Structure formats: structure tokens, C-alpha cells
Amino acid sequence: MTAILLQHLDYLHDAEVHLIELSISESGSRLLRINLRGDPECGFEAWNNKNLWIDFVDPLIVHCDLFGHMSNPETLGSWDFKGTARLSASIAMMTESGLPAPKCIASLSLNSGSQIEVACQEILIREEQVKG
Prior knowledge:
This protein is mainly β. The protein has helices at residues 2-6, 85-96, and strands at 16-24, 30-37, 50-57, 61-65, 76-80, 104-110, 115-120, 122-129. The strands form two sheets. The protein has a four-stranded antiparallel sheet with strand order 1-2-3-8. Strands 4-7-6-5 form a four-stranded antiparallel sheet, with helices on one face. The chain is globular and about 45 Å long.
């Protein structure tokens, strides 16, 4: 199911971002999690006005520039599966030291100008219906 959902990520343009967090468990495992709500007219009915949790499992690298100057809600501008030269160089440095290569790369651009790049082992999407 997740592979099918990943094919539809372009429909998340203008999704309202509610949470971006990096959690670290007691065992040391890491998870970058983003919570957002699909635009009511996003074009993919399954995500219209739904809360989504996007989990980047076991991130090797997270690069981000997050800006807090917005007075309006933050929204997702675009998403792709390419990384910048900076991310590629960071991945090379980490894998040369013996760490396993990441299986997934994702770049997110937010409408405030904020940028997030992630190299991780897996991307999971979980849907929840918006209450109210």
C-alpha cells in the first residue's frame, strides 16, 4: 500500500503542515515524522482533507532549513525523490565510514522557503480521517 501512496505524493501540494519532528528512542533508533492535512481539493480523493503521517524511518541524514517567519499556516510546495549535491556528498561520507547506504531519498520544499532533505531506509504513509 505504501508504494502506491508514494506514487501520489504530487497531490500533497498545498497540504497544511502541522508537525515536523525528529524522535530518538531509548534504543537510539530515529524517526523523522511529518504530519500534514491534504488540501480539500488536492485532486486525489483518498487524501482530500485527511490527516497524513509521513514517517522517514531510520534516517541516515536529514538536512533542513526551517523558517519561522510565517504568519499563515505552513504548506507543502513540492516533493521529489532527488537529492542535492550536498546530500549526495553527505551520503558518500557516511557510507565510506561503513554505514549502510540509504534506500530512500526525499526532498520537500515548503511554501515559506523551508527545505527538508532526507536519506533514510524507508518512507511510510499513514492516513487518518480529519475529525469535525
